[in-house]
Amino acid sequence: MDKIVIEGPTRLKGTVEVSGAKNSALPIMAATLLTDEKCIIKKVPALRDVNTMVKILRNLGVKVQFDGGRMVIEPKGYRNHIAPYKYVKEMRASFCVLGPILAKHKRAQVSYPGGCAIGNRPVDLHLKGIKALGAEIKIEHGYVIAETKQLKGAHVYLGGSFGSSVLATDNVMMAAALAKGRTVIENAACEPEVVDLADFLIDMGAKIKGAGTPLIEINGVKKLGGAEHEVIPDRIEAGTFMIAAAITKGDITVKGARYDHLGALVDKLQDAGVTVTRHGKDIRVRTCRHLKPVDITTLPYPGFPTDLQAQMMALVSVIDGISVITEKIYPDRFMHVSELARMGAQVKLEGDSAIVKGIKQLSGAPVMASDLRASAALVLAGMAARGKTDVSRVYHLDRGYDRIEMKLSQMGANIRREKEE
Q: Which range of residues forms the domain containing residue 201?
């Protein structure tokens, strides 16, 4: 097992290029199960989660070639309808194969998903949406078994306890693409990754309107064809690098980032005193002055992303004053607090909020990653800390960041990957 070793403090300076979005690539890969024709997906990030989805597709009988960010998927002739536990347990996005397999073959058997330990994340909205389209669903031995004679369009409301669900929206939208008649998804997730999936489905021949709004309309078609598509830039990776520039008082340019996808983060960084400027398709982030504390509440897009909450906590832990971070998406997503405390961070949890009292500097320490974004937060904290920080269990990091240590190293970070003893 690997670990990331960081010698801090450091100041980042230079340029970094953003990879394709993980949360777009995975459902787009699943969507190829809706057709018999070849699909080409470009700018696919080389991540552990992507490799897991490749294994799922191949296990179903799909041919997949992946090299240099270009993925060629040939689903023709696949007949297996079972996505097994040994793969689906690795990540939550695996559950997105349910809708496409069911729509194509009228039967799907998919294990309950796994992923990061960030609190309860049920699949009830997925099942609610699939049932509304006419599927019969039962749960047996840890598997969801769905069957239908013909999916039919319906009005589906996808409101949950903590707002809309990106993956449930994806799953229902994919299933509805081949359903008979018109489907309306109300309270649909508005994230850019949902729009990216919809664009891919439209390229395949689907009839979809309203993606990116809370109301998506899908008019089912009998058949979908192949398509070629480039995945959008990863806004969470871009945001992580932007926060990295702020926490190290650096000056970096994030190439290929979508400024229009990062409005909530840009707003909070500017409130803190960070200089963020747009240069065409690039974003420059500079920190040349004393920063101010900020209050943050995570919300569905276009609100502040829950996937950047841990990284922002690392930043405000070294900003003088009191910052309050409230988690409205996954209230249990504070497992990184105890690890940041090992580095000297002063954080007090009160319900779904974390009250952070900033200190002058963190202290390097051995820490353990609990989930994907917590891993990134600990790496950022290590770059701002004095001394050596060892981040263990970085297989979480590899699920969502493509060679992050190499990208940070190229901007001046003293960071390396080592084998754990």
A: 22-230
